[in-house]
Specification:
By secondary structure, the chain is mostly helical. It is built from 8 helices and no strands. Helix 1 runs antiparallel to helix 2, helix 5 packs antiparallel against helix 6 and helix 5 runs parallel beside helix 7. It starts with a helix and ends with a helix.
Amino acid sequence: MFRRQLQNSARISLRSSRAPQTLKTVSATVLQTRMSSAHAEETFEQFTERYVNFFGGVQDIFELQRGLNNAFAYDLVPATSVIEAALRAARRVNDFSTAVRIFEGVEEKVENKAQYEQYMQELKPVREELGIATKEELWGKSS
């Protein structure tokens, strides 16, 4: 809606011969800036570092869950260092249920069961240290 109003005001100001020249220039510049989609691409290493740092500073459950939603929204499986940082943050804010659900998120993101098992093997020392069980360990195997 804002874009449409801005476009209409730019068209009106460009049609009007009595409109000051600066208005024409500013409106065209705003339109060009508003409609551009030049975002820098983030590498996997930058993504990993950003979320490890984010989860390292989490102080409440809301921040933790917001970070997890954002991290899992990308079209990739977060690195084990990101998962480890998220698990440590979940235990730091005393949110056991979210810690268990992190593994459910990983299970949904991986392409196959073998990848999930690799994640579980790599994160096993952290799980044991923090005392975090998986859903399967708590409730048995599900179909």
